[in-house]
C-alpha cells in the first residue's frame, strides 16, 4: 500500500502566438499584466498556475460561458541568425 499523497496538477495556461496576442490586444481581450497593477489576482495566478510566465492576461469563457480573467503565455520571439 502506498503512503504517498496524489500529485495535484496545476491548471494549464493557454499559450498563443504573438500574432494571435496582437489581435486579442487590439480587441481589448488580452494585454500585459502592467495594466493590472495592484490587482490581487496576479499573486493568486503565480501560486495557482505554475507554468505562467507572469507577463500577459486574457479574457476567456469559464464553465458557465461568462468571460473571466485568466493568465496567458505568449510565444517567445524566435531568434534568427544572420
Characterization of this structure:
This protein is α+β, with helices and mostly antiparallel strands. The chain has two helices and four strands, in the order E-H-E-H-E-E. The chain has helices at 18-27, 41-48; strands spanning 14-16, 30-32, 56-61, 67-74. A hairpin with a 5-residue loop joins strand 3 and strand 4 (67-74).
Brief characterization of the structure:
The chain is α+β, with helices and mostly antiparallel strands.
Instruction: Give the count of helical stretches.
Output: 2
Counting helices, strands and paired strands, the structural category is alpha+beta
- Strand composition percent: 15-25%
The number of strands is 4
Characterize the biggest β-sheet: 4 strands, mixed
Spatial gap, N to C terminus:
58 Å
Q: What is the fold's blueprint, element by element?
A:
Blueprint: E1 14-16, H1 18-27, E2 30-32, H2 41-48, E3 56-61, E4 67-74
